[in-house]
Design goal:
This protein has 145 residues and is mostly helical. Helices cover 57% and strands 6% of the residues. It has a two-stranded antiparallel ribbon.
Length: 145
């Protein structure tokens, strides 16, 4: 079975929603409401607003309040990398974990696993930084309608 047919679930679900949202904003070229984006990316509007808040805090999107408000890209799609998006939606979003006491060997194992996972995440982000939103959009055939 190929990797493509199984689907790849790297990163949190908010990463995929964030990428889809930024692509949608890039394609639209205008200010879009959270309800409009949520509808286009098949997400709940409340969840989407949390994702958009992280993207806004990272300087990737701009939010405008009020009746005519919504979201727009803060910079061109050619300057937004997948790594930027991953950083935005994963920084500061760690879920609290249950601490289990496994003795000294367990603490050493945990420390080594943390180092390995940190390196893995750093390599993933470095790889994702090779692709801009414009690159991704060029790989996808959008239907004109």
């Amino acid at each position: 079975m190929s990797t493509a047919s199984r689907g790849v679930n790297i990163g949190p679900p908010r990463f995929k929603i964030a990428v889809h949202s930024i692509v949608w904003l890039a394609k639209s070229g205008c200010i879009c409401s959270s309800a409009m984006i949520a509808d286009q990316v098949d997400s709940h509007a409340t969840f989407l607003r949390r994702v958009m808040q992280a993207l806004s805090a990272a300087g990737l999107v701009e939010s405008k309040g009020g009746r005519e408000g919504g979201y727009s890209l803060r910079k061109p799609s050619e300057l937004i990398t997948l790594g930027d998006i991953y950083d935005a939606v994963t920084s500061g979003n760690a879920e609290p974990e249950i601490d289990v006491d496994c003795g000294e060997a367990g603490k050493q194992l945990d420390a080594e696993l943390e180092r390995i996972l940190l390196e893995s995440e750093q390599r993933t982000i470095a790889f994702l930084r090779q692709f801009t939103i414009a690159d991704v959009m060029n790989r996808v055939e959008f239907f004109k309608g």
